[in-house]
Design a protein that fits this description.
Blueprint: H1 3-43, H2 46-49, H3 51-69, H4 73-97
Helix pairs in contact: 1-3, 1-4, 3-4
Length: 98
């Protein structure tokens, strides 16, 4: 192989490794934020006051963790974002009821 092909392969490998790290960081940040919102929802009695939103948020976060376990960072981030949305909706409904 020529030197140009080796350089191209090395550059390609570098970018693929660096991009996969970015997906990991974004997914983990989203999952941590989803966990915090879910714990806030639970602390405010979300299990009894808004069971649909609570259960949805909990299951979506669980799926997010499963996807992360399989190193599917894009789907892990997406499911964590949906979990955050469900938790936020539940918290908003609890605030309306007060």
């Amino acid at each position: 192989m020529s030197r140009r092909i080796w350089v191209l392969l090395l550059v390609l490998a570098f970018f693929s490794i660096s991009l996969s790290g970015c997906f990991y960081d974004k997914a983990m940040k989203e999952m941590n934020a989803a966990e915090r919102l879910l714990s806030d929802l639970k602390a405010q009695g979300g299990e009894k006051l808004v069971p649909y939103e609570y259960c949805s948020a909990e299951k979506l976060l669980e799926i997010s963790k499963m996807e992360a376990g399989e190193s599917d960072w894009t789907h892990a981030r997406d499911f964590a974002a949906r979990s955050k949305a469900a938790s936020s909706a539940g918290l908003a409904q609890i605030q309306k009821k007060k």
